[in-house]
Amino acid sequence: MKFEKTVTVKASREAVWKFLWDVPRVAACIPGCKEARVVEEGKRYAATVAERVGPFKVEFPLSIEVLEAQAPERLKARAGGRDGKVDGMLKVEMDLHLVEAGGTTEIRLSADVNILGKLGTLGHSIVIRKGDEVVGKFAEGLRAQLES
Amino acid sequence: MLRPFELCEPTSVAEASKILAQHGEDARIYAGGTELILAMKMGLLHFDHLVNIKGIAGLGGIRFDPAANAVRIGGATRHREIELSPVVRERIPVVAEMESHVANVRVREQGTLGGNLSFADPHSDPATLLQVYNATVTLEKAGGKRTIPLGQLFRGPYDVTAEGDEVLSEVTVPDLPRRMAAAYLRFGILERPSVGVGVAVGLENGGVTSVRIAVGCVGPVPRRMPEAEVVLQGKSLAEAEALLPAAGEAAGRASEAVSDLHGSAEYKEHIVKVLIGRAFRAAVQQLT
User: Fold this and answer.
1) CATH architecture, range B180-287
2) B99: closest CA of chain A, how far (Å)
3) Which chain B residue has its CA at the smallest distance from A85's CA?
4) Of A54, A59, A104, B67, which has the fewest beta carbons less than 10 angstroms from its beta carbon?
5) What is the pTM of this model?
6) Are A86 and B259 within 8 A, CB to CB?
7) H-run or E-run covering B199
8) What is the pLDDT of residues A98-146, one digit of tens each?
9) May I ask the CATH class of domain B62-174?
10) Which of A86, A124, A132 is the closest to B44 by Cβ?
């Protein structure tokens, strides 16, 4: 499932690009992110993301891999993880473009989010609503952090 | 696979409520279990303690309360009882008709109205239609009880505003006022309905004195659609009938439809519009 969000931030493209590698600050933008750490600087990261819809709870320990990093304009990454309790696996492919316009930067975020397993089949509609909400909050979180 | 759990069998709401409060998120009310046990069997949910409320006197039963001019349905009343109840068929027949189409007869024989509303699956017929009747729900715990409009129970998909230690003890469904009639239409080919629309219309001297429209299954929660009601309210019947597509489109836009296995958002919005038109006409037909 593809989600696309664009936010305009009052910051230079260089500042935004630099921010993207600040693991603790970026982790703070991801809804439900419980912990994030560097495994191999610039290449591999790990994070745990927890979410809930009513009584349904999921927790995904994610392995994140940077696929492409073209400073300061494009970042492609993928993440994956399996919930330990519920039959569900999360796979995310993210493509982030930074476009400078005057003193502001447009962050164009495109995320392909898939939940596999029972959770994905049965929770299809919920995943769509939640996915949209999470990607939106992430984009807004980036802006809030960058403009603070 | 269903993991082990403790089955608690309280004999009063106060006792049930205390057990729920004690165990917090590790405990859940169990009545028919038609949604809960299914989810637990699939490993999507687990509770260490299930609080069986079927043994609590007073949570079942259907009666007409003349003082409130309303039908009172116990929270643990099964859909099948509501479907067949002489009281419901006499006073609020459209509710009986709606209940007769809930899921299938096996689910109706086991599942309860309170359970359906508490589980808050967005694809719920009762949750949709009962809002057209301005139904209220009573939430009871050890310390007391409170009654809220049904629409205020739903916070999001599978998410209710009731507290963890509250028992949905009763659903109160007021009679429709005189000169008002209701209709409920649903559509879908999957296990659960894809679109559900309830409409109640009040006519007086050829004018629409009141209109109540609820849409379920499509959005994150079933809800009334003031966006559509306002289009028809206060119009002459002829004007209202000409405005049905506009009202339907307003409801479609407001419904927060997403494209999923039930259909594209556009498709669902279209079905909402069609069903509102048909349900309005079906209600009016009962009055003319």
Assistant:
1) 2-Layer Sandwich (3.30)
2) 24
3) B43
4) B67
5) 0.94
6) no
7) strand B195-204
8) 999 888 999 999 999 999 998 888 888 898 999 899 999 999 999 999 9
9) alpha beta
10) A86
